[in-house]
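Researcher: We're teaching a course module on how sequence relates to structure. For the next exercise, students receive a sequence and then see the predicted structure as tokens, so they can try to spot secondary structure elements on their own. Here is the exercise chain.
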Amino acid sequence: MRYFILSFIIAFTAGLISCTSPADNNSGEEIEQEVQIKVDTLAEGLQNPWGMAFLPDGRILIAERPGNLRIYEDGNLYSEPVDGLPEIWAHGQGGLLDVVLHPQYDDNQWLYFVYAAPGPGGGNTAIGRGKLNDFTLTEFEELFHGYPLSGSGAHFGSRIVFDEQGYLFTTIGDRGQMETAQELTNHHGTVLRMYDDGTVPEDNPFVGQEDALPEIWSYGHRNIQGMIIHPETGDIWTHEHGPKGGDEINVVFKGENYGWPLATHGINYDGSVITPDTTLPGMVDPILHWTPSIAPCGLEIVTSNKYPQWQGNLLVGALAGQHIHRVVIQDREVVETEKLLQGFARFRAIEQGPDGYLYVLTESPGLFFRLRLQ
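Model: And here is the predicted structure for the students to work with:
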């Protein structure tokens, strides 16, 4: 195991990042604090790691986007990947994107996967589940496949979470076709809600509505790659990639429209305007937005007493920003923000483990490590 000690002077900057909370009106006064973070490197050489899951027996599963599921056990990352995964369409931004345990894993042994699955004319984001037997996945079944299929390599999402009632939530990006995020006849640009077997709850907002797909919980999203359930309120918190600027944090509510691409703080990559509107009637504004973009990926809320300074805070991985963005929230408002480990790597996933420590995956380089405060 390798150890790195990194010391940073952190600037808390309320209002430096535009947000819809009262902090947006603050003067931007910076309060400097010295923070020392210890990075325990557990594994190196991972290939585009995207997600992780902690098994009750101490093993840790790591999903690599090209389609491998790796096992980390007792300080060792096995070179042999798990066999028996479905055909995974490692195309553009698509591939194996997340792995989570069923809430009753001890009883049923189900592991859930979100991945890009191929089909006639391309592919789309899919959900499946299986059971792990040593290094083999058994009893695999595909529960859901996003519609329509597309040859695009852009914006698959995706994350999976279960709420306290056992409902499964997942996300699909707009697949590079921004206008489709406003159409309920496809799964693009949505948060989806279903039972753990992939069937649709009758109280989903668009069940029975003509020209609407019943799995949709919310829409008007660009590309969500971070999602959590708040442990106290049950709120669904997400973040999503904007285009050039306009990355967002949102609280997701049943049946709501989050605006993309009719309302956004971002612009096209060539500098052209997507829309003059940053807010519109009947659409939900972001809790916070980043311009310039940090390219957020991975989201966690800290509940562990191992990080007393961070309890209740959101941690957001940043790809383009190459840092972890700490977001202090009160109720549904942003109070302060802080950048951690600036320039360290492209952060892809952050999870609080059963031991209370924070575990992180990065790409370029492909690292798996644990964070500790000194």
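Model: If you want an answer key for the exercise: Residues 3-32 have pLDDT under 50 and may be disordered. DSSP finds one helix and 25 strands in the chain.
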